[in-house]
Amino acid sequence: MSVRFITGNLASDPESQAAGKTTIVKFTVLENTAEYRGGERIEGFKPLAHAVEAKFELGAGAVASLHKGDAVIVVGHERDASFEGTDGIVYRRIIDATHIGPDLGHATAVVTRTPRENS
Q: How far is 72 from 65, CA to CA, in rounded Å?
């Protein structure tokens, strides 16, 4: 598995889905493809869409904190996935997030620690 670092904006609010005893949070990050050359902004093609999934406390934190349009930084492991679509099997790459946070170059944030549960 390769580690990916991406930045971009949320295409929609994160959504929770039950998967057995685990809840998986899913969202899409749109990455801008523009770049700067010689101090001039060169527009890229349409934004790249990255499918992201997060579990446990990370997913719960994403649902509680992030909303459509928010600028984010995501770190995770990329994997392949396939599912049955209306036109046959659909293949896609998914980033299983290990870290998610606001991009402070485009936003401000107030950090509230979540107390740890005693085991």
A: 11
